[in-house]
Amino acid sequence: MSAALILLFVVLLVVLAFEYINGFHDTANAIATVVSTKVLTPRAALLLAASTNLVGAFFGQAVAKTVHSGIIDDKVVAVTSITILCAMLGAIIWNLITWWFGMPSSSSHALFGGLIGAAMASVHGKWNWHVLIWSRLKMDSKTGLPVVDKITGQPTGEMEGIFHKIVIPMITSPLLGLVVGFLVMGLLFALIRNWRPHTVNKWFGKLQILSAGYMGFGHGLADAQKTMGIIMLTLYGATKAGELDTLPGWLHFLRVPDKTASIPLWIMITCALVMAAGTYAGGWRIIKTLGHKMVKMKPVHGFAAETTAATILAVTGTLGMPVSTTHTITTSIMGVGAARRWNAIEWSLVERIVWAWIMTMPITAVLAYGIAKLVELVF
Questions:
Q1: Segments making up each domain of the chain, as ranges
Q2: Stretch 341-353: mean pLDDT, rounded?
């Protein structure tokens, strides 16, 4: 087996390691509220989250396609196994650091920052911002021209690139979580204002099991696809570079000659299972931060936060926007807490969380860039 093939398999293992870490790092997104309200035991909540993660991973491919064809311009720079390896290492390091300190940072933005930094490092000499797709009309990868409407023959006007698919959702999804969570909680308060507390807890205790499953589904849909996109990007780069030309016949399924192709079933199954396994492992440090320290919640609050966040994830996932699960559920919890009363939220903790969000992409980009340059220097 050639050195290139060995490196490729190492990279795929590192990508799956990131997926596993993503599972336990972001477990809190799906189960923090249902655990803190004591509707489910921690292990039962983990089992529910892992199961619904598994199901959600099979719905849609729009986010995966954004990741493997909407961030790095492979016409400017070749995406190599080394590029992906450095990107993943940068993201993994940051995820482990934030997990250790119990900070619910975004695995998605860690991934994007790593990709950006590694791509920039792959260009020798001065920084070349053109290696990244910042903003453009959605292009047909076969013709290299803007996608046109089948009826009118005119460009559809649909935009792609980092600005439209990452930066704008990075700003709008937390705001949506905050505002919609506030409104949903306000509506529920109006509906149940005459209910007895026992009745509220009884009914919403049952409903929160459904909303927690919905949140797990949204997490699987949003996050598993990102790693699917990375694997597609890795295999496409290896195929284009000729690294897979000598594969034995039984491994030809690894070849990805067309980056517009649908995600193969084996990639979907592998990512879904690895993420579900990581989710079941649990991320207790972050669960304590989201479920207990930020806002004290009862079942009705957990139901409102989970329903809000899961709906945002489902809609943005369908649109191919790789939105952060962490940002969405965290701000949904904030919105629900603010509807209860403004000082119900531990704002000093919120400040530390927001700083972790702000630093995620720059730090992972620098980490990946530094790792790539170190690899280049050593080898």
A1: 3-378
A2: 77
> Which tens digits make up the pLDDT trace of 226-251?
899 999 999 998 888 888 887 788 88
pLDDT tens-digit readout, 133-192? 888 888 776 677 787 777 777 777 778 888 888 888 888 989 999 999 999 999 999 999
What is the mean pLDDT of the segment spanning 202-224? Answer: 89
Separation of alpha carbons 241 and 126, rounded Å: 24
* pTM across the whole model: 0.86
Q: How far apart are CA 323 and CA 312, in angstroms?
A: 9
